[in-house]
Design a protein that fits this description.
By secondary structure, the protein is mainly α. About 70% of the residues lie in helices and about 0% in strands. The two termini are about 40 Å apart. The model has no long low-confidence stretch (mean pLDDT about 90).
Length: about 400
């Protein structure tokens, strides 16, 4: 039997899980009997990270090591600064800016590949590690985090199940669990949930995700391009609508499958990584959708961009009208989210689209409160709300997919 351990990408194929489950056996047995083998857990994570960055991806592995050293220096320098009782705003902004510079450089290099920017530290998972680092720096600033244990911090940043695609955990929550073994009854329950999430992830990614993304999407894409060429003008056809729904299903099942795998493996390791999706297509409005879709990212952006900008603007009295303040905060939030996805027009438009959708939704909510006696609320209106929200979201995913760019301009 030929075991090819070169470039094992996380959760990439069913064979990967054979190696993963073999590596998990000592961890599972230890936790079942009340012992957490921290050294083995670290070795386990490092081995699987090595298998991601070996062979022709060794440069990414080197970039990861350099990146970690930089982020550790920034975090501990700022922690030392705060321990001395200092809390200047400029120092905080500088620490946050320096921590996100590597990610910014990656995004710029990706958008302009011919630019050849020197010193770019590109590797799989850089976005999610950056989010974790920025979160720690911000909570150090707030005083919520007063100590950062080096071993715990490294385990937090390099926690293998969530390394490549999240979910985004919080340092204080992770630190409470990573050094202790759960009680047996709790862990047995965790094993049941982990097994369920694992098989659900297989259904989502390798069955439904494959059906929509690998089987149907290329066929629909080809037909939409042929019909678009024949139609001319905006090149729109019913095939574009079919692409919109098919891509939306693919995006959900593929990403939700990855997230379920990450949560499942975390539970096997006795860590309660938060869930990332909660039936998002049953949302009755766009704001509820963002409370159900990629939740750890949504909550991260809410807590560390939206809320902080809102508090800053209120403190500086930048806006007299709280409604205008929230609208500007939404625009900032989703513009940042769009730029984070990439410096491409359709990602930026995707962010603006959701900002405008939430602003319109807020207007509608305020209108409903004023005219509650005139507007019905029943099963029909709830179903209608779900239907409208679902289609608004699917249209935003059509923008996000880049297919319109291919259809109109011939490039993604």
């Amino acid at each position: 039997m030929n075991f090819n351990f070169i470039n094992l990408q996380p959760y990439g194929n069913p064979h990967y899980f054979i190696y993963l489950m073999i590596g998990l056996i000592p961890i599972i047995l230890g936790l079942y009997y009340g012992h957490r083998f921290k050294i083995y857990e670290c070795i386990f994570s490092l081995v699987f990270l090595f298998l991601v960055f070996d062979a022709d991806k060794w440069q990414q592995g080197v970039s990861l090591i350099i990146y970690l050293l930089i982020e550790l220096v920034i975090t501990y320098c700022y922690l030392y600064y705060r321990k001395k009782g200092k809390n200047k705003t400029w120092a905080f902004y500088l620490a946050v800016f320096l921590s996100i510079v590597p990610l910014i450089m990656v995004k710029v290099q990706t958008a302009f590949p011919k630019a050849k920017i020197p010193g770019v530290l590109a590797f799989l998972g850089i976005s999610y590690i950056t989010f974790k680092t920025v979160q720690v720096i911000m909570e150090i600033r707030d005083g919520a985090i007063k100590e950062v244990n080096l071993g715990t911090y490294l385990r937090f940043l390099l926690f293998f199940p969530t390394f490549s695609s999240g979910p985004i955990d919080r340092y204080r929550r992770f630190a409470k669990e990573c050094d202790v073994a759960p009680k047996r009854d709790q862990y047995v329950n965790d094993l049941g949930l982990a097994t369920r999430y694992l098989f659900q992830g297989f259904l989502y990614k390798f069955v439904l995700g494959w059906f929509f993304g690998t089987y149907w999407l290329p066929r629909i894409s080809r037909m939409a391009l042929i019909a678009g060429t024949a139609n001319g003008g905006l090149k729109l056809s019913w095939w574009v609508l079919a692409y919109m729904y098919c891509y939306s299903m693919y995006l959900f099942f593929d990403f939700a499958g990855y997230s379920l795998f990450a949560v499942s493996i975390s539970y096997f390791m006795g860590i309660h990584t938060p869930m990332n999706f909660n039936k998002p297509f049953l949302s009755q409005n766009i704001k509820e959708f963002w409370n159900r879709w990629h939740m750890t990212l949504s909550f991260w952006f809410r807590d560390y961009i939206y809320m902080r900008f809102t508090f800053f603007a209120m403190k500086k009295k930048l806006f007299k009208n709280p409604v205008r303040l929230s609208q500007v905060a939404y625009l900032l939030l989703f513009l940042v989210m769009g730029f984070w996805h990439g410096l491409t027009w359709y990602y930026i438009v995707y962010g603006l689209f959701h900002a405008i959708a939430i602003i319109i939704n807020d207007y509608w909510i305020r209108y409903k409160k004023k005219h509650r006696d005139k507007l019905p609320s029943n099963k029909f209106t709830k179903c209608l709300s779900i239907f409208v929200t679902f289609n608004v979201v699917c249209f935003s995913f059509l923008i996000f997919s880049g297919f319109l760019s291919q259809l109109w301009f011939g490039w993604m």
